[in-house]
Specification:
Order of helices and strands: EEHEEEE
Number of strands: 6
Largest sheet: 4 strands, antiparallel
Shape: elongated
Number of helices: 1
Radius of gyration: 16 Å
Bound molecules: zinc ion
Number of domains: 1
Structural class: mainly beta
Length: 81
């Protein structure tokens, strides 16, 4: 008797922010922009700003993987503070 293994899961904590100078939206790893508080350079207007200050949302993405680690699909797991 064999059982079907449960799907493997990986997670990514993402912070969504908007450039205060030109309005371009960005999604970055939360450890980078929230935990480290790193500045980023906007790829559109070229100005530097701090996404932690302009964070508009933070969510956890859930990646469902097959046995080899290939991503099958991605879904929004939950909103984080
Ligand atoms: Zn910009």
């Amino acid at each position: 008797m064999s059982s079907i293994p449960a799907p493997k899961k990986a997670f990514l904590d993402v912070a969504v922010s908007i450039c205060p100078f030109c309005g371009t939206p960005y999604a970055d790893a939360s450890w980078y922009v929230i935990e480290l508080g790193s500045d980023v350079e906007c790829g559109v207007c070229g100005r530097t700003w701090n996404p932690k200050t302009y964070k508009v949302d933070r969510i956890l993405l859930e990646f469902r993987l097959d046995e080899q680690g290939t991503v099958l699909d991605v879904k929004k797991d939950k909103r984080i503070a």
